[in-house]
């Protein structure tokens, strides 16, 4: 893998279609799986050890890294590729696990405590990236995507429910046009995968698997708490989401967490599409619409003209949003200026308290270029979803039952974090020749973390 120094830190477009042995070695080294392997060995106990858990885990991860749709394809490649076998500690063709061995291993991997340890591995890798990359997690975006799955046998369903795992169910999503007419319907049987992603670097910061009926806004607190627990304090500043998250509980939670929401609003008002601000009576010319945009009316002109007031900024100490007369702020003549401004140097000023309606009045108003720019960053989640599905097969629909589904999703998220770690730690190429590569300070920090973790693992009995 050759990355030019002009590429972004996480150069996702530089990923090889078929990773080299050196890249695979780096990926495996970047995964802190010591505790998981120890737990798997304890769970096996004194049972048969024909196929060590390290070989089973390595094979399971290789299927995702090498982009095999089915496990049989990965096992066949291991049998004919000696170099690949040695990377996971398999020293002969006969020692390659069988398909049924991997199927049973996947089921065990999705059970406790292994399922929790899978997420702990992902969290540790994101934590390391957050320490090395100063702006990772500053501007975030969230979304949910549909994942297909199949139900397990009744006996296993009972055991999965006892562990608190949701079962696959039918989901349906309708897409509406501006007139509220349904233009597209998507139906699936399975789960929802909720992601919180860094907008700039397109790295997943947290994830949650839920029932297909779970609302996006209801999952925001879980995603944010997971990300805040592994990122440096006060790292997350904004969160972009579509209108599915436009609920009061989500806005109240983000306000308490001091995170500025960038959430598209849902249209619910059927009448009185413009309303007066608190403290304003019928003599006032200041109104706001459902999106929270504040307007002033020029009543002197004929016909009456409506102007969008100039947004000045958010005042966190007061929890207010400040607006000014657009004519004074932008330097144009308004017939109402003498009445509204009354000799004020900066013109008429309005402060809107956010507590009036947290949904209507976010810290970054919707009718601003800043909101529009941050909201466009939500496309980063779509690109991450695309890589998870197309590159690493998180939505292949082959998993039967909640245990296996959770194991597959957890492993895919680990591979995603491992690729992010490798990309950030790769040397960068200068000039037009293949030589002249160098390590950035971030790459040096990440490689030092990996070396320290590997040294600790080597000395752990």
Q: Outline of this structure?
A:
The protein has 16 helices and 16 strands.
Q: What labels would you give this structure?
A:
461 residues, alpha+beta, Nucleotidyltransferase, domain 5, six-stranded mixed sheet, four-stranded antiparallel sheet, 16 helices, 16 strands, elongated
How many discrete structural domains? Answer: 3
Q: Which whole number gives the mean pLDDT?
A: 89
Low-pLDDT regions: none
Counted by DSSP, the helix tally is 16
Based on helices, strands and strand pairing, what is the structural class? Answer: alpha+beta
Radius of gyration of CA atoms, rounded to a whole number? 27 Å
N-to-C CA distance: 34 Å
Q: Overall 3D geometry?
A: elongated
- Helix percent reads 40-55%
Secondary structure layout:
Blueprint: E1 3-4, H1 21-30, H2 34-44, H3 53-65, H4 71-80, H5 82-87, H6 99-109, H7 114-132, E2 139-148, H8 154-162, E3 169-176, E4 182-198, E5 204-211, H9 216-230, E6 238-241, H10 248-256, E7 260-263, E8 275-276, E9 286-288, E10 294-298, E11 305-308, E12 310-315, E13 320-324, H11 326-330, H12 337-341, E14 349-353, H13 369-376, H14 379-391, H15 402-425, E15 428-429, E16 437-438, H16 441-458
Parallel strand pairs: 1-15, 2-6, 6-7
Antiparallel strand pairs: 2-4, 3-4, 4-5, 8-9, 9-10, 10-11, 12-13, 13-14, 15-16
